[in-house]
Amino acid sequence: MFNPLSALRTLLLLSSLTLMASGALAASSVLIWPINPTLSAEQKARPLWLENQANVPATLQIRIFRWQQRDQGNDYQPQDDVLPSPPVVTIAPGDRQLVRLTLTGAAPGTGEDAYRILVDEIPDVASDRRPANSRVQFRMRYSVPLFVTSPAVPEDTERADRSLNWEIVKEGGKRYLRIHNEGPVHVRLTRVHMDQVTLAEGLLGYVLAHASRQWPLPDNVRAGQTLKATVNAAEPVVLRHVGS
Fold first, then answer.
1. What CATH number should be reported for the domain whose range is 160-241?
2. Domain spans of the chain, in order of start
3. For the segment 227-242, what is each residue's pLDDT rounded down to a tens digit?
4. Could you give the CA distance from residue 99 to residue 50 in angstroms, rounded to a whole number?
5. With a threshold of 0.85, does the pTM exceed it?
């Protein structure tokens, strides 16, 4: 049974805010759950719930992109292996809408495939009766990770931290923490510390299977420090250092 208080605690953090005109500010008005959906050969469809917490109707567009990581960054490409239904919804104030995520292609034989679900709020320009030159329009974008898994993934996920290593690199006169994931599944990094220096108390980010990501380091991080992180919501662990 849906528990509004529980869902509120796991409110999806705003991934990005695209301003259609300068000076616009807005609070998040859409609740999305679950925030870590998965699909597999055994479960090719899963519900995604959207709830409108605003006092006006919300029109939302749902799209799913294949997610890869190249050159330390994220790359999103159109695909049709996983489809949302319906792809566009209008939700009345206080109501919620079921969107079905369906795997139309084959699940991976090993490891996992990564996707990003983008939910965009579409401004209701037609009902805005203010003069065009006085309107401040904005669009909220929410981003949810989606993974299509193979049967071996549960075991792989439990041991994901063993596939990680890290190094400090210099680029353009700046230092970065670069984390390599040599394993077959993604890692979600939270509560990341280098000795007494906090790099992220909440979410630092994801590193997909067989990929690398990097983040800028503060000036008070020194060589020889120990990197500790929570990997996929397990107990905090010390990550293996490589390089000089």
1. 2.60.40.10
2. 30-127+136-149, 160-241
3. 999 999 888 999 999 9
4. 8
5. no
Per residue in 118-155, pLDDT (tens digit) is: 999 998 755 555 555 544 455 789 999 999 999 877 66
- Residue 54, classified by CB atoms within 10 Å of its CB into exposed (0-12), middle (13-18) or buried (19+), is middle
Superfamily for the 30-127+136-149 domain: Immunoglobulins (2.60.40.10)
Same CATH fold assignment for domains 30-127+136-149 and 160-241: yes
On the 0-12 / 13-18 / 19+ scale of CB atoms within 10 A, 44 is: middle
